C-alpha cells in the first residue's frame, strides 16, 4: 500500500511539473525565427494533381523556449496549399512551440485547379506562410507553376470501383485483357503542342485509325501507363529539328508525369510505347523517349512488305528493361541514339528484319545487367519451355557505334536449325567486343568473315562527351571520325544535330565536335 501511495504522489508530481512547465517555460515569440529557405519553390505540377511534399525547417536559435501565437497560410483556409506541422494537417495553426536551440519541420503540398484562374495554359500560384502577426510577423513565400493539360484515363465503375481494361482485336477476334486503360475516340487521335497530355493506364489506338502527334507535343505517362497501337492501327510522331537543343521546342517528348528535377532521369516511371502485332506504318521522327520500362516494344510483322516501325532522328534513354525491343518484327532506324537500359539498348529477338544506319547503340547503365548493348536472336521459349525458332531474315548495321561500359557489347544468340536463317552484317561500325574468356566462338564471331563483318573497328574509344548523362556526341579523340562509308552517309545526309555529314562521315548519329572546356 505504501508503494502504491508513493507511486501516486510521484505521478501527480510529474504531471503537475509538466503542466507548470507548459505554462511558464515558453516565452512569446519576438520575431527572430530563422528558416531553411525564404521561398519554397514547388516544382511544376499539372492542374488538379497533387504536388510532391516539400520541407521547410524553422529554427529557434535563442536560449528560450518560445510560443508562436499563429502560423497560417496568407490566404487562410481558401489557400490551395496544405501544411503539416508536428503531425497536424491544416492551413491555420495556433500556439506552435519550439524549444530553445531547436527546430520544427513544416511540410508543404499543393493541389491547384488552373481553371479557377485566367491564364494561357500556365499559371504561377503564390501564397505565404505567416508566422505570428503585427510587428513580430515573419513570412516565407510559396511559389508553384501550374500547367494545364489534357488528361486521358480509363473509366472507373461508380459502384464496384473496378477500373476499365482494354479489349484487343487479335486476328479478327476480340480478347479481354487485364491491361488498365481505354481506347481513344476518333476525336482524340490528334495530339497537338497546345497542352501537354497526361495518360493514366494504356491509351489504345483502335484498328483502322492513326494517332498523329504534332511537333513540340509533350506526352506524360503515369506509373504503369503507355500507348498501345492496336492491330491495323498506326502511330505517326511528326517531330522536327529544334534550333534550341536545351528547350527542344520541336521535339516530341515521351516521359513520366513527375515534373520535379529529381525525376528527370529516373528509369521505370511508366510502361512502354507498344506497337502491337498487326500495327502498320508506324513512323517516329524527332522524338525523345525516356524513363520508361521499355521505350518501344514492337511486335510481329517480320514478313510484311513495309517496316512496322521507321524511327529517325530520335533518342531513347533510361529504360529499366530495353530501349527498343523487337520481337519477330521489322524496324529501320536512322540517326537513332539509344542509351542506359537495364537489359539491352536494342534487342532484335525471335528473328525479324532490322536495318540501322548512322545510329549510336550504347549502354552505360550504372547497375549490373544481363545483356550487352546490342542483342540479336532467332528464338523464344514459350510457357511450356519449348524453344520456337524462326528466321532472322536480315540485321544490317551500317556506320554505327555499338558500345558501352560492359564488354562485350554484342551478343549473337543463334539456335541453329538447318531450315532457319540467321543473317546479319556489320559494315563500318565501331564495336566494343573483347572476348577475354574465349566464351564466344563459332562462325558468327569470325570478324574476318566479310559476309558478316566489313570495315569495322573494334575496342577503340568513341570519345563520348558524357555518356552517363546521355550526351553521346563524339569528340576529337574518337576512333569513329571519318570512318563512315559515303554511300550510307548519302542515305542519311545530316546528323542528329542537322550537320551535313556527306563529305566526311563519322560513325554513329553525330558528327564530331570540339568539346567545350570544363568550367573549374
From TrEMBL:
Domain of life: Bacteria
UniProt cross-references to SUPFAM superfamilies, sorted A to Z: Pectin lyase-like (SSF51126)
PROSITE patterns tied to this protein: PROKAR_LIPOPROTEIN (PS51257)
Name of the protein in question: Right handed beta helix domain-containing protein
Organism of this sequence: Aestuariibaculum marinum
Amino acid at each position: 500500500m505504501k508503494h502504491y501511495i508513493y507511486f501516486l504522489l510521484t505521478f501527480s508530481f510529474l504531471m503537475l511539473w509538466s503542466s507548470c512547465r507548459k505554462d511558464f517555460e515558453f516565452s512569446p515569440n519576438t520575431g527572430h525565427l530563422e528558416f531553411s529557405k525564404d521561398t519554397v519553390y514547388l516544382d511544376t505540377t499539372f492542374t488538379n494533381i497533387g504536388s510532391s511534399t516539400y520541407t521547410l525547417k524553422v529554427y529557434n536559435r535563442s536560449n528560450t523556449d518560445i510560443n508562436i501565437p499563429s502560423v497560417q497560410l496568407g490566404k487562410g483556409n481558401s489557400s490551395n496549399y496544405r501544411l503539416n506541422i508536428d503531425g497536424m494537417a491544416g492551413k491555420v495553426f495556433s500556439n506552435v512551440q519550439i524549444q530553445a536551440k531547436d527546430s520544427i519541420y513544416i511540410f508543404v503540398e499543393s493541389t491547384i485547379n488552373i481553371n479557377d484562374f485566367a491564364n494561357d495554359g500556365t499559371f504561377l500560384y503564390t501564397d505565404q506562410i505567416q508566422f505570428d502577426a503585427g510587428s513580430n510577423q515573419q513570412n516565407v513565400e510559396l511559389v508553384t507553376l501550374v500547367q494545364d493539360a489534357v488528361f486521358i484515363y480509363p473509366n472507373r465503375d461508380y459502384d464496384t470501383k473496378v477500373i476499365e481494361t482494354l479489349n484487343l482485336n487479335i486476328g479478327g477476334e476480340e480478347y479481354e485483357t487485364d491491361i488498365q486503360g481505354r481506347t481513344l475516340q476518333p476525336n482524340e487521335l490528334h495530339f497537338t503542342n497546345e497542352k501537354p497530355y497526361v495518360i493514366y493506364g494504356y491509351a489504345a489506338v483502335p484498328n483502322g485509325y492513326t494517332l498523329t502527334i504534332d511537333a513540340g507535343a509533350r506526352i506524360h505517362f503515369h506509373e504503369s501507363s503507355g500507348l498501345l497501337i492496336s492491330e491495323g492501327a498506326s502511330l505517326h510522331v511528326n517531330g522536327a529539328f529544334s534550333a534550341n537543343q536545351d528547350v527542344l521546342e520541336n521535339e516530341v517528348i515521351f516521359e513520366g508525369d513527375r515534373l520535379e528535377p529529381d525525376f528527370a532521369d529516373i528509369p521505370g516511371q511508366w510502361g512502354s510505347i507498344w506497337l502491337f502485332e498487326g500495327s502498320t506504318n508506324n513512323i517516329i521522327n524527332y522524338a525523345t523517349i525516356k524513363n520508361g520500362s521499355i521505350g518501344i516494344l514492337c511486335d510481329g510483322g517480320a514478313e510484311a512488305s513495309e517496316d512496322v516501325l521507321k524511327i529517325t532522328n530520335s533518342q531513347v534513354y533510361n529504360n529499366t528493361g530495353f530501349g527498343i525491343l523487337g520481337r519477330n518484327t521489322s524496324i529501320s532506324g536512322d540517326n537513332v541514339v539509344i542509351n542506359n537500359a537495364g537489359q539491352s539498348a536494342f534487342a532484335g529477338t525471335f528473328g525479324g528484319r532490322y536495318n540501322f544506319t548512322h545510329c549510336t547503340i550504347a549502354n552505360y547503365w550504372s547497375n549490373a545487367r544481363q545483356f550487352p548493348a546490342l542483342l540479336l536472336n532467332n528464338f523464344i521459349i514459350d510457357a511450356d519451355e519449348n524453344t520456337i525458332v524462326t528466321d532472322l531474315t536480315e540485321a544490317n548495321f551500317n556506320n554505327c557505334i555499338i558500345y558501352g561500359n560492359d564488354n562485350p557489347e554484342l551478343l549473337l544468340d543463334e539456335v541453329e536449325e538447318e531450315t532457319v536463317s540467321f543473317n546479319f552484317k556489320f559494315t563500318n561500325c565501331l564495336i566494343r567486343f573483347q572476348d577475354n574468356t574465349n566464351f564466344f566462338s563459332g562462325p558468327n564471331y569470325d570478324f574476318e568473315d566479310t559476309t558478316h563483318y566489313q570495315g569495322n573497328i573494334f575496342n577503340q574509344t568513341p570519345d563520348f562527351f558524357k555518356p552517363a548523362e546521355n550526351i553521346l556526341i563524339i569528340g576529337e579523340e574518337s576512333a569513329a571520325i571519318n570512318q563512315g562509308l559515303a554511300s550510307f552517309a548519302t542515305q542519311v545526309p545530316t546528323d542528329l544535330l542537322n550537320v551535313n555529314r556527306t563529305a566526311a562521315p563519322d560513325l554513329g548519329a553525330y558528327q564530331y565536335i570540339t568539346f567545350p572546356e570544363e568550367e573549374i
